[in-house]
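User: For a teaching handout, I'd like to show students what a predicted protein-ligand complex looks like in token form. I'll give you the sequence and the SMILES for NAP. Please answer with just the structure.
Assistant: Understood, here is the input followed by the structure.
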Amino acid sequence: MFTQDDLCATYGDPWAAATVPFMNNAAPTMRAITQQRLGGADELILTTKPRPAPLPTEVLVRVTAAGVNPVDWKTREGNGMAGVLGEPPFVLGWDVAGVVEEVGFGVTTLAVGDRVFGMPWFPRQAGAYAEYVTAPSRQFVKVPDVLSDVQAAAVPLAALTAWQALVDTAGVSAGDRVLVTAGAGGVGHLAVQLAKHLGAHVTATASERNHAWLRSIGADDVVDYHDPEYLTTVKDIDAIIELTGADQVRIASTLRPGGIIVAVPGGVSAELGAAATAAGFRTSAFLVEPDGAALTTIAGLLSAGQVTVEVARTFPIADVAKAHALGETNRTRGKIVLEVAR
Ligand SMILES: NC(=O)c1ccc[n+]([C@@H]2O[C@H](COP(=O)([O-])OP(=O)(O)OC[C@H]3O[C@@H](n4cnc5c(N)ncnc54)[C@H](OP(=O)(O)O)[C@@H]3O)[C@@H](O)[C@H]2O)c1
């Protein structure tokens, strides 16, 4: 059995090293999209930085693709996780797909050469918009063979959000009636499929152009939110996965007494809390967490073809500003992914 002394003999003092996460000036470099100031997409600059090195129990992953999420542009402009990251400079991005390049002491579940994906460190900085990241090994999972690197990078944050909201927060089970708002988005299209997998009856909200596609991936009913009366046919809902952050009280009026609305963006407004008390439904705020166990379950569903991930568009990492601009239209079907060329 290894002791603390053995660790120190192998690595020096690992806890001292932990205070120098980007190691020393002699370290090899990597390209990364660095942000020096909060602001618009033109603040995303391609730079060269020291390459990180894995501490004990961490892996170094060579990033091949990085998923883009709304939290990225929210954080870029000073919202989202900006309060967690602190003042720039920082490197955005939490969705990683890539290959294990090095393993730190104590890593037993992954090996050099493994294709992996994950959402490491969230809500702390992960720095996925870069050629390399280091993170605890158990925040990564092996990529199913059926997925390309681009598809893999589209999965972790959105699928973990959908899973943790449906399973851990709302406790959805077979026979439940589930409403997913923004069903065509990155989180929504995975929530529709995962709710269906759990045996729920699934209603989604989306623009008309996305209705046939949402039915093809498992939605039982789809309603167009552009119609002012779109919620009149939606009733007796057990669980709402609310992904728009808008119109919460009206959307929650579709719940049965005792049902739950998981307010994914923005949390539970005071107005929604008051409506819940008056009408007898439940509310929950939500923030996704790294979760290797859930991601392993999701990988199994992807491998079995029970869940598919939709990639709307890919961009080379140098075109990250264009990727953000597309995402900020708030009309993406599925996910946007950056390809991190080597
Ligand atoms: N708290 C957390 O941990 C957490 C985790 C993940 C995501 N989020 C948040 O959840 C939200 C959704 O994330 P996402 O990645 O799924 O976003 P996204 O992919 O950018 O969402 C785009 C989709 O939103 C749909 N949409 C826009 N306005 C709508 C409305 N009023 N009603 C219904 N659908 C509407 C569009 O549908 P159509 O094209 O059909 O119109 C489009 O398909 C974001 O605000 C994100 O920041 C929070």
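For the handout, you might add this sentence: The chain has two domains: 4-155+310-339, 157-285.
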